[in-house]
């Protein structure tokens, strides 16, 4: 910081660099003297402001003629000449402010959108995960029969850990939910059971306390706990005495041994707040090879590639399958990088968005190049005169480059502002499922990207017109100084406008296909009525709930309490709720159709529900009967199946009266099918597989500890939230309630990601349309200016206004038709990349392509109208006089 | 014939005449601001002075450094005979052009 009584050092240095050597010293001396005058009369702030103003004006003031010529003997460096160029460029910018505003606007939109989207995509797709040597982190699981991923059991992870030669460390983990009790309100925490090597594998250590030890990861070891920084601060007041403190979870006492650093991000389980050792041993029944409820990560040894590790694991798999042939589906392991694992689900959407951004940036570039070209064509005479006066080709090209740098610089600065606003907007509308949104921000690498983009645009836009202008015959240029020529420049600009329209039509097709998918998707019935339905999940916690009868009684009382509330029409409980993310699937074995290998029997979603569930959800009965309160535990076991399952298993028979077994093929009750109901979308609206078996909750051997309450209300479902919650807590105040939502919001949330992509694409399409219109308008205005003389002659020879209008508009339409044709062909080829995002429309959907073609034709006609109108108004006399 | 003078060139030349031996950037600027109410920036003034010097109408020399200027020297300017000729020609033209305007267009 400069002291207040001295002139700003930065401004002085800046000026010292720019001023020609012969005035540098006295000029700075005068400025300093003036600074002291202002300081004495108006104070230090005013003085500094004055000094900066003088310095900037000093740098940009119209220099004496001699300063234009670099003079080595005077000490003028290349910087001084460069600033002469910039000064000249700034003067041009000021003179052509309309042109400047248009170029800067186009660049700001292009650069801003690109940077914002790149900022969002970078941490998700490209940035390394926030762990040391994250490229060495992999996950692994068994390979299924069809090459798919088949999950992994603890015993297999253990064998891999013992037998492999590729990994430095291996860890297994499984998700865990536990209720924190003994404090004000019960809080349900998300967490993980992990191997003691988990944090070491990630390469992260607790900020407070210590990591797990191998001794704590054995059956019967004392219970220990590590917390996130957020939980420690939020629930435990950030007290560092937490280490060593006992905490009660689900009625079991854990000792807190550590707190993770604030910046720690657990990418595979972003919601996890607590970790405790797995405490598994291969002798445990749930540690078996087919107990696929764990997942595994590993850190590669330095120098070992993921491919080498995969080969190593395949060899191990071959040995394991030979030893335990019945416990594996197939030989082989899948070893994806952790990064790929994390981005797996969103990759197609984000890549499509990245593609759209690239298209938009290309459109902006083409547009700006087009405008600069149009102007360069108009300035051919100026270049010719300069060259005739002895300006070298390099000198003129440098001058044009300086102009481009000034324009793109301004566009870039404004674009970064647009990007900052855009990033904030993107985070605000990002769907909850988007990974790593917390890491999104305009960051260093992203800014770097923007700078590279700006520089590239500057080079392209600067060099093309310069090269173009200087290639032309200078003599012809001088000769034609009064007239504008039609030729190469026109062809090139026409080519640019065609490519612009082509790019825009590709973007429009992309967004059109997405819009049509969304419309189709929301027209899909989920199979139940989601209006005025409130839902919340009750997660029972505490030792008392180990007793099934107690749990059943508890849920009965909750249901009775909720049903009695005013405004509630009906209420029911289900073990899994459609479109909520629940996934509970069982093998279904049919008594009359036994298979040699029961593992090949069909799978279906299992719903344990209370009587009244179908009525509350309004799932229609197709045949037979629904479940009733009489289907109690001491009554014959029954089941209701859905239509698609009935069709699949009994294509030509009546399923009613048939008996099925869920889970194990050789034990458990045979359940008689008593009814068939309509299909329900369980995983997502776009998903197709939804075979289902419904059983009465009271007839399920292990009563589900977590049940979703569904309440049909008379009016607005959300308004009853508090009443339903307190009716539940009136039964037992210690039971956590989670996932409170209306069924409507659940249904729209499952499509949030598609919706987000759609929103982005629509924004792109709008921007692309505007830019394409600007391009068509720009090139036609140029044409009209170039052809004024010709138009004047035509008008003089009797062409009507209408003839001239038609001539110009048809040229605009011809250009855009060519561009649209090329663009639609390109879109057809590229749409393969976004096929996984489409639903219910083919990538060659005729309606979309047709609509885009018509839309672009309309836009082109509108954009051509203004220049055409201008041309039609040409007064032949005044034009011919200037010839 | 030194060519015609631009407006700012006229003002700067007149300022140099009025200031005599004490004409350098700060005083020239102050004199112009005081007489015309026009706040010209140093950049403009230096550019004008450089142009006048190029035309051979003024010449300059470096003075002594002073602490108030951060130890930098002043660049003094003085009107050369050619400058005086040009300035006279200009003033002559101005006088001729304004003569006789008095009743309808009083010039102070």
Could you outline the blueprint of secondary structure elements for this entry?
The complex is a heterodimer of chains A (883) and B (108).
Chain A lengths: L8 H10 L2 H22 L1 H17 L17 H18 L1 H30 L10 E3 L1 E2 L11 H10 L3 E14 L6 E8 L3 H5 L5 E2 L14 E4 L1 H8 L9 E4 L2 E8 L14 E4 L17 E6 L5 H18 L9 E2 L3 H6 L3 H32 L1 H9 L4 H37 L14 H28 L2 H6 L8 H36 L9 E7 L8 H16 L4 E7 L10 E6 L12 E7 L3 H5 L3 E4 L13 E5 H7 L9 E4 L8 E7 L14 E5 L9 E8 L7 H11 L5 E6 H8 L1 H35 L1 H9 L4 H30 L15 H27 L3 H7 L1
Parallel strand pairs in A: 4-9, 6-8, 15-20, 17-19
Antiparallel strand pairs in A: 1-10, 2-11, 3-4, 3-10, 5-8, 6-9, 7-8, 12-21, 12-22, 13-21, 14-15, 14-18, 16-19, 17-20, 18-19
Helix pairs in contact in A: 1-3, 2-3, 4-13, 5-11, 5-13, 5-14, 6-9, 11-14, 11-16, 11-22, 13-14, 16-22, 16-24, 16-25, 17-20, 22-24, 22-25, 23-26, 24-25
Chain B lengths: L6 H13 L5 H12 L5 H13 L3 E9 L5 E8 L1 H18 L10
Antiparallel strand pairs in B: 1-2
Would you mind describing this structure in some detail?
The complex is a heterodimer of chains A (about 900) and B (about 110). With about 900 residues, chain A is an alpha+beta fold. Chain A folds into four domains: about 70 residues, no CATH class; about 200 residues, no CATH class; about 300 residues, no CATH class; about 190 residues, no CATH class. Helix content of chain A is about 50%, strand content about 15%. Chain A contains 26 helices and 22 strands. In chain A, the strands form four sheets. In chain A, strands 1, 3, 4, 5, 6, 7, 8, 9 and 10 form a nine-stranded mixed sheet that branches. A six-stranded mixed beta barrel of chain A has the order 14-15-20-17-19-18. Chain A is globular and about 105 Å long. About 0% of the residues of chain A have low confidence. Chain B has four helices and two strands; from the N terminus they run H-H-H-E-E-H. Chain B has a single domain, classed as Orthogonal Bundle (Arc Repressor Mutant, subunit A), CATH 1.10.10. In chain B, strands 1-2 form a two-stranded antiparallel ribbon. With about 110 residues, chain B is an alpha+beta fold. The mean pLDDT of chain B is about 85. The longest helix of chain B is centred in the C-terminal third of the chain and has 18 residues. In chain B, strand 1 and strand 2 form a beta hairpin. At the A-B interface, helix 2 and helix 3 of A face helix 2, helix 3, strand 1 and strand 2 of B.
């Amino acid at each position: 910081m400069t002291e207040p009584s001295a002139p700003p050092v930065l401004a002085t240095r800046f000026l010292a660099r720019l001023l020609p050597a012969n005035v540098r010293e006295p000029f700075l001396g005068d400025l300093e003297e003036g600074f002291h005058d202002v300081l004495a009369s108006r104070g230090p702030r005013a003085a500094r402001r004055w000094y900066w103003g003088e310095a900037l004006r000093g740098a940009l003031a119209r220099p004496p003629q001699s300063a234009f010529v670099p003079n080595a003997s005077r000490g003028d460096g290349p910087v001084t000449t460069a600033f002469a160029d910039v000064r000249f460029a700034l003067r041009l910018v000021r003179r052509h402010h309309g042109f400047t505003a248009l170029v800067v606007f186009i660049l700001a939109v292009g650069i801003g959108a690109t940077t914002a989207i790149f900022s969002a995509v970078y941490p998700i797709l490209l940035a390394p995960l926030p762990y040391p040597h994250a490229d060495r982190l992999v996950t692994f699981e068994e390979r299924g029969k069809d090459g798919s991923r088949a999950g992994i059991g603890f015993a297999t992870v253990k064998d891999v850990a013992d037998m492999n030669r590729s990994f430095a460390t291996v860890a297994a983990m499984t998700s865990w939910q536990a209720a924190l009790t003994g404090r004000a309100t019960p809080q349900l925490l998300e967490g993980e059971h992990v191997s003691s090597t988990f944090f070491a594998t990630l390469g992260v250590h607790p900020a407070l306390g210590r990591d797990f030890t191998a001794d704590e990861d054995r059956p019967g070891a004392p219970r220990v706990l590590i917390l996130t920084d957020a939980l420690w601060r939020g629930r435990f007041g950030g007290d560092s005495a937490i280490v060593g403190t006992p905490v009660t979870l689900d009625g079991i006492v854990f000792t807190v041994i550590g707190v993770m650093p604030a910046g720690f991000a657990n990418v595979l389980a972003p919601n996890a707040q607590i970790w405790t050792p797995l405490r598994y041993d291969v002798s445990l029944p749930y540690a078996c090879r087919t107990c696929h409820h764990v997942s595994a990560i590993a850190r590669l040894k330095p120098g070992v590639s993921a491919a080498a590790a995969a080969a190593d694991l395949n060899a191990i798999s071959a040995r394991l399958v030979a030893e335990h042939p019945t416990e594996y589906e197939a030989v082989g392991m899948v070893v994806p990088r952790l990064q790929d694992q994390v981005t797996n689900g969103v990759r197609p959407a984000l890549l499509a968005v990245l593609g759209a951004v690239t298209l938009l940036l290309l459109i902006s570039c083409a547009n700006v190049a087009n405008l600069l070209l149009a102007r360069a064509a108009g300035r051919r005479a100026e270049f010719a005169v300069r060259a005739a006066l002895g300006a070298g080709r390099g000198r003129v090209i440098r001058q044009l480059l300086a102009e481009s740098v000034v324009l793109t610089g301004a566009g870039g600065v404004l674009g970064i502002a647009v990007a900052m606003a855009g990033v904030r907007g993107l985070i605000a509308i990002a769907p909850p499922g988007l990974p790593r949104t917390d890491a999104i921000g305009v960051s260093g690498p992203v800014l770097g990207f923007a700078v590279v983009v700006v520089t590239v645009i500057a080079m392209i836009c600067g060099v093309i017109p310069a090269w173009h202008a200087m290639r032309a015959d200078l003599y012809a240029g001088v000769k034609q100084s009064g007239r504008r020529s039609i030729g190469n420049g026109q062809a090139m600009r026409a080519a640019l406008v065609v490519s612009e329209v082509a790019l825009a039509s590709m973007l429009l097709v992309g967004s059109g296909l997405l819009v049509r998918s969304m419309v189709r998707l929301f027209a899909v019935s989920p199979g139940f009525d989601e209006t005025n339905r409130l839902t919340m999940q009750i997660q029972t916690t505490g030792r008392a709930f180990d007793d099934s009868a107690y749990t059943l009684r508890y849920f009965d009382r909750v249901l009775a309490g909720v049903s009695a509330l005013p405004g509630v029409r009906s209420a029911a409980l289900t073990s899994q709720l459609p479109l909520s993310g629940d996934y509970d699937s069982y093998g279904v074995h049919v008594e009359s159709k036994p298979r040699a290998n029961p593992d090949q029997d069909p799978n279906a979603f299992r719903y344990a529900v209370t009587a009244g569930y179908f009525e509350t959800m309004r799932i229609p009965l197709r045949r037979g009967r629904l479940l009733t309160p009489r289907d109690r535990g001491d009554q014959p076991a029954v089941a209701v199946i859905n239509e698609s399952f009935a069709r699949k298993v009994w294509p030509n028979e009546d399923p009613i009266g048939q008996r099925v077994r869920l889970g194990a093929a050789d034990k458990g009750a045979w359940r008689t099918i008593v009814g068939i109901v309509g299909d329900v979308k369980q995983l997502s609206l776009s998903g197709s597989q939804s075979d289902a078996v419904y059983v009465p909750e009271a007839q399920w051997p292990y009563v589900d500890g977590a049940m979703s309450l569904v309440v049909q209300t008379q009016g607005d479902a959300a308004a009853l939230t508090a009443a339903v919650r307190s009716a539940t807590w009136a039964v037992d105040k210690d039971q956590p309630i989670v996932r409170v939502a209306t069924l409507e919001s659940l249904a729209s949330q499952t499509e949030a990601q598609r919706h987000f992509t759609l929103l982005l694409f629509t924004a792109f399409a709008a921007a692309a349309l505007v830019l394409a219109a600007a391009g068509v308008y720009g090139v036609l205005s140029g044409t009209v200016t170039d052809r004024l003389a010709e138009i004047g002659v035509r008008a003089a020879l009797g062409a009507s206004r209408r003839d001239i209008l038609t001539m110009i508009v048809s040229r605009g339409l011809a250009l855009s038709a060519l561009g649209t044709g090329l663009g639609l062909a390109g879109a057809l080829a590229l749409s393969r990349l976004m096929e996984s995002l489409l639903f219910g429309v083919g990538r060659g959907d005729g309606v979309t392509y047709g609509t885009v073609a018509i839309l672009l034709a309309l836009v082109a006609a509108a954009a051509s109208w203004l220049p055409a109108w201008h041309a039609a108004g040409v007064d032949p006399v005044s034009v011919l006089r200037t010839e | 014939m030194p060519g015609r003078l631009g407006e700012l060139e006229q003002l700067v030349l007149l300022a140099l005449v009025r200031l005599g031996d004490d004409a350098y950037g700060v005083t020239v600027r102050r004199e112009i601001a005081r007489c015309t109410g026009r706040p010209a920036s140093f950049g403009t003034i230096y550019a004008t002075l450089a142009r006048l010097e190029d035309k051979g109408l003024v010449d300059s020399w470096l003075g002594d450094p002073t602490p108030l200027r951060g130890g930098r020297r002043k660049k003094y300017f003085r009107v050369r005979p050619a400058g005086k000729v040009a300035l006279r020609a200009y003033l002559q033209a101005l006088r001729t052009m304004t003569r006789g305007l008095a009743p309808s267009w009083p010039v102070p």
